[in-house]
Amino acid sequence: WVSANSSAGNVTFTSAYTTNVYVVTATSNSVVNTYQAAVLSQNNTVAVIRTANVTSTNVFWQAIGY
Question: Could you give the strand order of the β-sheet that contains 38-42, starting from the edge strand earlier in sequence?
Answer without folding.
Answer: 10-12, 46-50, 38-42
